[in-house]
Amino acid sequence: MNRLFYFSVVVLLSFQGCKKDGCNDPKAFNYDPEGTSPEACVWEPVPVEVSFTTSYGDVAVTSGANPTQLTTDEGRSLQIDYFGVYLTEMAFVVDGKAGLLGNGTNDCVEREQDAHLMLESDRTYTGSFLPNADANVTAIRFNVGVDSCRNVGLDPSTKLSGPFAPKSPTMYWSWASGYRFVTIEGMVDASASADGSDLQKFEYHTGMNALLRTVEIPMEELTVEDGKVIVHLNLDFKQVLSNVDFTTELVTHTMDNMPLAMKITENTKEAFTLD
User: Fold this and answer.
1) Closest Cα partner for 249 from 263, 239, 238?
2) CB atoms within 10 A of CB 264
Protein backbone atom coordinates (compact mmCIF):
# COMPACT_ATOMS: atom_id res chain seq x y z
CA MET A 1 0.00 0.00 0.00
CA ASN A 2 2.87 2.38 0.81
CA ARG A 3 4.36 1.72 -2.62
CA LEU A 4 1.02 2.53 -4.27
CA PHE A 5 0.77 5.77 -2.30
CA TYR A 6 4.33 6.72 -3.31
CA PHE A 7 3.52 6.08 -6.98
CA SER A 8 0.39 8.25 -6.74
CA VAL A 9 2.36 11.13 -5.25
CA VAL A 10 4.94 10.95 -8.04
CA VAL A 11 2.23 11.01 -10.73
CA LEU A 12 0.50 13.96 -9.05
CA LEU A 13 3.72 15.96 -8.75
CA SER A 14 4.58 15.23 -12.37
CA PHE A 15 1.14 16.43 -13.49
CA GLN A 16 1.44 19.62 -11.48
CA GLY A 17 4.91 20.20 -12.86
CA CYS A 18 3.58 19.95 -16.42
CA LYS A 19 0.85 22.47 -15.62
CA LYS A 20 3.42 24.93 -14.27
CA ASP A 21 5.58 24.45 -17.34
CA GLY A 22 2.70 25.26 -19.72
CA CYS A 23 2.64 28.28 -22.02
CA ASN A 24 1.97 31.52 -20.14
CA ASP A 25 1.32 33.88 -23.09
CA PRO A 26 -2.40 34.46 -23.90
CA LYS A 27 -1.57 35.19 -27.54
CA ALA A 28 -0.04 31.74 -28.09
CA PHE A 29 -1.91 28.86 -29.68
CA ASN A 30 -1.41 26.61 -26.64
CA TYR A 31 -1.94 29.17 -23.89
CA ASP A 32 -2.40 27.63 -20.43
CA PRO A 33 -3.91 29.98 -17.80
CA GLU A 34 -1.85 28.15 -15.18
CA GLY A 35 1.31 28.01 -17.25
CA THR A 36 4.57 29.70 -16.30
CA SER A 37 6.88 28.98 -19.24
CA PRO A 38 7.29 31.16 -22.35
CA GLU A 39 9.48 28.44 -23.88
CA ALA A 40 6.48 26.10 -24.06
CA CYS A 41 4.48 28.43 -26.31
CA VAL A 42 3.48 27.46 -29.85
CA TRP A 43 2.85 30.37 -32.21
CA GLU A 44 0.15 30.24 -34.87
CA PRO A 45 -1.91 32.98 -36.52
CA VAL A 46 -4.40 34.55 -34.12
CA PRO A 47 -7.73 35.88 -35.49
CA VAL A 48 -8.03 39.67 -35.32
CA GLU A 49 -11.30 41.56 -35.17
CA VAL A 50 -11.38 45.34 -35.54
CA SER A 51 -14.82 46.76 -34.79
CA PHE A 52 -15.85 50.31 -35.64
CA THR A 53 -18.26 52.68 -33.97
CA THR A 54 -19.24 56.13 -35.21
CA SER A 55 -20.02 59.25 -33.25
CA TYR A 56 -20.46 63.00 -33.48
CA GLY A 57 -18.52 64.10 -30.45
CA ASP A 58 -20.09 62.22 -27.57
CA VAL A 59 -23.23 61.26 -29.51
CA ALA A 60 -23.42 57.84 -31.17
CA VAL A 61 -24.24 58.10 -34.89
CA THR A 62 -26.26 55.89 -37.19
CA SER A 63 -27.04 56.62 -40.82
CA GLY A 64 -29.48 55.16 -43.32
CA ALA A 65 -33.26 55.10 -43.05
CA ASN A 66 -33.31 56.61 -39.55
CA PRO A 67 -30.25 58.84 -39.27
CA THR A 68 -29.29 60.37 -35.95
CA GLN A 69 -30.46 63.97 -35.63
CA LEU A 70 -27.42 66.02 -34.66
CA THR A 71 -26.70 69.62 -33.72
CA THR A 72 -23.42 71.36 -34.53
CA ASP A 73 -21.66 73.74 -32.17
CA GLU A 74 -23.21 76.57 -34.21
CA GLY A 75 -26.66 75.19 -33.55
CA ARG A 76 -27.18 73.80 -37.06
CA SER A 77 -29.24 70.66 -37.54
CA LEU A 78 -27.24 67.91 -39.23
CA GLN A 79 -27.80 64.33 -40.26
CA ILE A 80 -25.54 61.79 -41.99
CA ASP A 81 -27.51 59.72 -44.48
CA TYR A 82 -24.65 57.65 -45.90
CA PHE A 83 -20.96 57.10 -45.32
CA GLY A 84 -18.31 54.86 -46.82
CA VAL A 85 -14.62 54.87 -45.90
CA TYR A 86 -11.97 52.64 -47.47
CA LEU A 87 -9.34 51.38 -45.01
CA THR A 88 -6.42 49.48 -46.54
CA GLU A 89 -3.04 48.10 -45.48
CA MET A 90 -4.54 47.16 -42.11
CA ALA A 91 -1.56 46.28 -39.92
CA PHE A 92 -0.11 46.06 -36.45
CA VAL A 93 3.15 47.94 -35.93
CA VAL A 94 5.62 45.46 -34.43
CA ASP A 95 9.05 46.73 -33.40
CA GLY A 96 8.64 49.70 -35.73
CA LYS A 97 7.53 47.66 -38.78
CA ALA A 98 4.02 47.11 -40.16
CA GLY A 99 2.76 43.52 -40.23
CA LEU A 100 -0.30 43.25 -42.47
CA LEU A 101 -3.38 41.68 -40.86
CA GLY A 102 -3.92 39.28 -43.71
CA ASN A 103 -1.89 36.45 -45.21
CA GLY A 104 -3.13 36.48 -48.78
CA THR A 105 -1.30 36.91 -52.06
CA ASN A 106 1.50 39.44 -52.40
CA ASP A 107 -0.10 40.67 -55.62
CA CYS A 108 -1.46 44.04 -54.53
CA VAL A 109 -4.24 44.00 -57.12
CA GLU A 110 -5.62 40.69 -55.84
CA ARG A 111 -4.90 41.17 -52.14
CA GLU A 112 -8.05 41.82 -50.12
CA GLN A 113 -7.31 40.46 -46.65
CA ASP A 114 -5.82 43.78 -45.51
CA ALA A 115 -8.72 45.94 -46.76
CA HIS A 116 -12.08 46.99 -45.35
CA LEU A 117 -14.86 49.21 -46.66
CA MET A 118 -16.38 50.73 -43.54
CA LEU A 119 -20.13 51.18 -43.99
CA GLU A 120 -23.14 51.51 -41.72
CA SER A 121 -23.88 47.90 -42.64
CA ASP A 122 -20.30 46.64 -42.23
CA ARG A 123 -18.51 47.79 -39.11
CA THR A 124 -16.20 44.81 -38.55
CA TYR A 125 -12.88 43.96 -40.17
CA THR A 126 -11.45 40.46 -39.70
CA GLY A 127 -7.88 39.39 -40.34
CA SER A 128 -5.12 37.48 -38.60
CA PHE A 129 -1.83 38.17 -36.85
CA LEU A 130 1.16 35.91 -36.17
CA PRO A 131 2.57 36.92 -32.79
CA ASN A 132 5.69 35.65 -31.05
CA ALA A 133 7.23 35.93 -27.64
CA ASP A 134 9.43 38.90 -28.55
CA ALA A 135 6.91 40.86 -30.62
CA ASN A 136 6.25 44.35 -29.27
CA VAL A 137 3.04 45.68 -30.81
CA THR A 138 2.95 49.45 -30.37
CA ALA A 139 0.22 50.64 -32.76
CA ILE A 140 -2.42 49.81 -35.33
CA ARG A 141 -1.78 51.33 -38.75
CA PHE A 142 -3.95 51.65 -41.87
CA ASN A 143 -4.55 53.87 -44.86
CA VAL A 144 -7.61 56.00 -45.35
CA GLY A 145 -8.13 55.34 -49.05
CA VAL A 146 -7.03 52.73 -51.56
CA ASP A 147 -3.30 52.30 -52.19
CA SER A 148 -2.17 53.46 -55.62
CA CYS A 149 -1.60 49.94 -57.01
CA ARG A 150 -5.18 48.82 -56.40
CA ASN A 151 -6.69 52.24 -57.01
CA VAL A 152 -5.25 52.34 -60.51
CA GLY A 153 -4.93 48.66 -61.37
CA LEU A 154 -8.11 47.07 -60.02
CA ASP A 155 -11.32 46.93 -62.07
CA PRO A 156 -14.31 46.43 -59.71
CA SER A 157 -16.30 44.72 -62.47
CA THR A 158 -13.92 41.77 -62.12
CA LYS A 159 -14.90 41.29 -58.46
CA LEU A 160 -18.00 39.38 -57.43
CA SER A 161 -17.65 40.08 -53.71
CA GLY A 162 -15.36 41.70 -51.16
CA PRO A 163 -14.47 45.30 -50.37
CA PHE A 164 -13.56 46.20 -53.96
CA ALA A 165 -16.62 44.74 -55.71
CA PRO A 166 -19.26 47.13 -57.10
CA LYS A 167 -21.34 48.84 -54.40
CA SER A 168 -24.61 50.70 -54.26
CA PRO A 169 -24.22 53.62 -53.81
CA THR A 170 -21.05 53.33 -55.85
CA MET A 171 -17.64 53.77 -54.27
CA TYR A 172 -15.88 53.85 -57.64
CA TRP A 173 -15.38 56.64 -60.17
CA SER A 174 -15.48 55.22 -63.68
CA TRP A 175 -14.47 58.62 -65.03
CA ALA A 176 -11.35 58.62 -62.88
CA SER A 177 -10.68 54.85 -62.98
CA GLY A 178 -10.32 54.84 -59.23
CA TYR A 179 -12.15 54.48 -55.93
CA ARG A 180 -13.74 57.05 -53.70
CA PHE A 181 -11.74 57.02 -50.51
CA VAL A 182 -14.27 58.80 -48.30
CA THR A 183 -17.95 59.37 -49.06
CA ILE A 184 -20.20 61.30 -46.68
CA GLU A 185 -23.67 62.49 -47.64
CA GLY A 186 -26.43 64.06 -45.60
CA MET A 187 -28.49 67.13 -44.82
CA VAL A 188 -27.51 70.29 -42.97
CA ASP A 189 -28.97 73.67 -42.14
CA ALA A 190 -27.02 75.96 -44.49
CA SER A 191 -28.68 79.22 -43.46
CA ALA A 192 -26.36 82.09 -42.58
CA SER A 193 -27.91 82.51 -39.14
CA ALA A 194 -28.32 78.75 -38.46
CA ASP A 195 -32.03 79.29 -37.89
CA GLY A 196 -33.20 76.15 -39.70
CA SER A 197 -34.59 78.01 -42.70
CA ASP A 198 -32.34 76.49 -45.38
CA LEU A 199 -31.94 72.71 -45.19
CA GLN A 200 -29.47 71.59 -47.88
CA LYS A 201 -27.88 68.36 -49.03
CA PHE A 202 -24.13 68.02 -48.58
CA GLU A 203 -22.02 65.57 -50.59
CA TYR A 204 -18.35 64.95 -49.90
CA HIS A 205 -16.54 62.45 -52.16
CA THR A 206 -12.76 62.31 -51.85
CA GLY A 207 -10.31 60.21 -53.83
CA MET A 208 -7.28 60.27 -56.15
CA ASN A 209 -3.86 58.87 -55.21
CA ALA A 210 -2.59 62.16 -53.82
CA LEU A 211 -5.17 62.04 -51.02
CA LEU A 212 -4.13 58.66 -49.60
CA ARG A 213 -3.39 59.14 -45.91
CA THR A 214 -1.90 56.85 -43.26
CA VAL A 215 -3.31 56.59 -39.74
CA GLU A 216 -1.25 55.21 -36.87
CA ILE A 217 -2.83 54.88 -33.44
CA PRO A 218 -0.66 53.89 -30.46
CA MET A 219 -1.73 50.75 -28.62
CA GLU A 220 -0.81 49.08 -25.38
CA GLU A 221 -0.17 45.34 -25.16
CA LEU A 222 -2.61 43.25 -27.19
CA THR A 223 -5.30 41.43 -25.30
CA VAL A 224 -7.00 38.22 -26.38
CA GLU A 225 -10.74 37.73 -25.88
CA ASP A 226 -12.42 34.43 -26.75
CA GLY A 227 -9.37 33.25 -28.66
CA LYS A 228 -8.93 36.38 -30.80
CA VAL A 229 -7.41 39.84 -30.65
CA ILE A 230 -10.16 42.46 -30.52
CA VAL A 231 -9.60 46.15 -31.25
CA HIS A 232 -12.32 48.80 -30.97
CA LEU A 233 -11.98 51.97 -33.06
CA ASN A 234 -14.27 54.99 -33.28
CA LEU A 235 -14.71 57.42 -36.18
CA ASP A 236 -15.80 60.86 -34.97
CA PHE A 237 -17.76 62.71 -37.66
CA LYS A 238 -17.47 65.92 -35.67
CA GLN A 239 -13.73 65.78 -36.37
CA VAL A 240 -14.33 64.71 -40.00
CA LEU A 241 -16.47 67.81 -40.57
CA SER A 242 -14.31 70.13 -38.47
CA ASN A 243 -13.87 73.65 -39.91
CA VAL A 244 -16.28 72.97 -42.77
CA ASP A 245 -18.34 76.07 -43.61
CA PHE A 246 -21.81 74.65 -44.14
CA THR A 247 -23.03 77.87 -45.74
CA THR A 248 -20.62 77.56 -48.69
CA GLU A 249 -18.82 74.18 -48.57
CA LEU A 250 -21.54 71.69 -49.43
CA VAL A 251 -20.07 69.68 -52.33
CA THR A 252 -16.78 68.20 -53.40
CA HIS A 253 -16.06 65.43 -55.87
CA THR A 254 -12.36 66.11 -55.29
CA MET A 255 -11.29 67.65 -58.59
CA ASP A 256 -14.11 70.22 -58.61
CA ASN A 257 -13.21 71.41 -55.08
CA MET A 258 -9.79 70.14 -54.11
CA PRO A 259 -9.37 72.39 -51.03
CA LEU A 260 -12.53 70.96 -49.49
CA ALA A 261 -11.55 67.41 -50.45
CA MET A 262 -8.18 67.90 -48.76
CA LYS A 263 -9.88 69.30 -45.65
CA ILE A 264 -12.21 66.29 -45.38
CA THR A 265 -9.28 63.93 -45.99
CA GLU A 266 -7.02 65.46 -43.34
CA ASN A 267 -9.89 65.61 -40.87
CA THR A 268 -10.72 61.94 -41.44
CA LYS A 269 -7.12 60.97 -40.81
CA GLU A 270 -7.37 62.54 -37.34
CA ALA A 271 -10.89 61.26 -36.57
CA PHE A 272 -10.04 57.64 -35.65
CA THR A 273 -9.36 56.81 -32.02
CA LEU A 274 -9.21 53.71 -29.84
CA ASP A 275 -12.63 53.23 -28.29
Assistant:
1) 263
2) 27
DSSP 136: -
Task: Return the SS3 of 104.
Answer: coil
Look at residue 131 and tell me whether its pLDDT is greater than 90: no
Task: Mention every residue, 6+ apart, whose C-beta is less than 8 A from residue 17.
Answer: none
Q: What confidence category does residue 11 fall into, taking pLDDT thresholds of 50, 70 and 90?
A: very low
Q: Cβ neighbours of residue 144 under 8 Å, at least 6 residues apart?
A: 85, 86, 87, 181, 182, 212, 213, 214, 215, 265, 268, 269
Give the per-residue pLDDT at 17: 43
pLDDT at position 31, please?
Answer: 84
**Nearest-angstrom CA–CA distance, 6 and 4:** 5
Whole-model pTM over 0.90 = no
Q: Is residue 15 over pLDDT 70? A: no
Tell me which residue of 210, 209, 204, 212 sits closest to 240, measured CA to CA: 204
Cα angle, residue 190 at apex, residues 188 and 196 outer, rounded to 5°:
80
Cα atoms in the 13 Å half-sphere on the side-chain side of 225: 5
Phi and psi for 43 in degrees, rounded to 5?
Answer: -105, 120
Mean per-residue pLDDT for 86-110?
A: 80
